[in-house]
Amino acid sequence: MSATAIPNMLPLQAMLNARTSNPSGDVAGRRGCPLSDLRDRLRRAGLRPTRQRLSLGWLLFGRGDRHLTAEMLYDEAMRAKVPVSLATVYNTLHQFTEAGLLRQLALDGSKAYFDTNPSEHHHFFLEDEGQVLDMPDCGITVDSLPDAPEGMEIAGVEVIVRLRRRGPVARKA
Question: What is the pairing mode between strands 103-108 and 123-126?
Answer without folding.
Answer: unpaired
